[in-house]
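Section 3.1 - Work completed
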Amino acid sequence: MIPPPGTVGAVDVRGGGPGTHETDALDPTTLVPTVDAVTLTGGSAFGLASAGGVQQWCLEQGLGFPAGPPQDPTSILVPIVPAAAVFDLGRGGDLSARPDFSLGYQAASSASTTTARGVIGAGTGALAARGLLKGGIGTASRELPGGVVVGALAVLNSMGSPLDTATGGLLGTAFVPPGLPRPPLPSSAENEFFLRDLAAATAPPPANTTLAVVATNAVLDPARTRRTATAAHDGLARSLAPVHTLLDGDTVFALATGAIEVDFPTIVAIQTAAADAVMLAVMDAVLAADGVDQSAFGGVAVPSYRDRFPSFTF
């Protein structure tokens, strides 16, 4: 993700098994308040190498923190590129297949304003619900008065389930804001089959992680941007159960591009919308993902939500 120059960045890490890079630099008390890019990747800690490729691309575009001598500070630029990774090693059958420097550079150079959803990018090997559902990438946004927008992108790769076990419906459905469509419930018989498989999945996957980036065009200082990231974690708690476990590295980044000045009540509304947007993005990830079958290559075969609940229409 390549935000406009001068974008303030923050992060809140809640999971017990995170894989992150440069997150300490986003503390509100540190030197640099802005970020040049945010990298979400697969490959666990190995995949964090892809942030180096994004950093190189940013450098070539003249982006970065000026660290040169006083007479020429821009003679040395250090792009600030925080990153976080999901655990998906071996799910395609090849343990050595993971993002690297070159893939990060390629991703940055091909970045666009159109975000792909589903089984792509960091969501390629993502799973959910103890490995019983295919995860992926989802997006959502909320509009506030005065032209303020809060958008979110989520990479769903959770140990927890995004489903209400009583109904098979999406767990976040009860929290969908008024005025937005609520996904209907699937067949109860289909849910019984899912619950049977869930009960049999006694051993949780060893590592998971759901990642999110929430962004607004409002002016926020580093501390308020950090508080927005913290509030956005409520969106994960509404849409996944359990969440923030020792087997998840749940991490939420927040970005404020600074295009619109806002008053204090709007800042609170932005934080509320951040939680809504992340929750809706997780729900979107569930619905956008397609099932995969990599068993012929020694990988996983995992159905999507729509595969498991064919009666669902939305």
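Second construct:
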Amino acid sequence: MKEEFKAFVIDRDESTKEQSQGWKTVSTDDLMDGDVTVRVRHTTMNYKDALAITGKSPVVRRFPMVPGIDLAGEVVASESDRFQPGQNIILNGWGVGETHWGGYAEYARLKSDWLLHQPEGLSGADCMAVGTAGYTAALCVLRLQDLGVKPEDGKVLVTGASGGVGSFAISFLAQLGYTVAASTGRMEEEPYLKTLGASEIVDRGTLSGKGRPLDKETFAAAVDSVGSQTLANVLSKIAYGGTVAACGLAQGVDLPSTVMPFILRGVTLAGVDSVMAPLETREPAWSMISKTLDRDALAQITQSAALEDIEDLASQLLEGKIRGRLLIDVD
């Protein structure tokens, strides 16, 4: 099978280290190694994709590169026993869009170990509206549950609430019976966040500046996608025996905290990785999503976008101008 198609390709001049990008016509013969070839139907844009496209951070580690860390599509050729032509698959992470060509193209060739069958009850468009953001939120919620956090324990704080991970975390937690406090720097988003299930809105400014090593026990647990000083302040406000599921670094990679929340209150800081999580971790997360997903909330969280607009969308996303999730129809 040889097909010519359009792909968004990022390249770099090795002498000047300057990045360039744009639409190119490539062929299925140009695709990278893998045992499953997929006709991409839907993709999305994550924070990492926006960084790659704008070159704001060295996300891309191999050139030329087709970005897009999420994709959903139809198998057109397979050397794997797990997948047959005509089946629908989804993919999140595994270095796709960083070291292996990703979803901003009409075709992708991928390793079967990276792929999941499209979850029952969800369309490809649904899965990409959820994307890595919703999948990561699901991993965080499962992590809290695995560590014993129950709805009756008290409020769960979600930071970065207006973003993709935060929006889905609020919705999933609310659907599971938790009382959710949502932290955002955009207080005008209060109606949106309460529609998702938040019962309380916390001004991001109260968490983003330097705080006390140990503060009032305010929350039973938290989902944090911000990191840095915000995460330090969140830890200081967690009640005895509580847990924080940490999955992001929107504010920074540092953690200016102390050991006091850990040794005086027995707080657990639980790291959550979505990129390299094994199949046995991914499948329960997507199963929870298919059972818990609030369709009305999904509609609130998602906006549709055109693939040809990804450069403008990347800049808008990094500037905090995009709420929730972007669903991109590759067809």
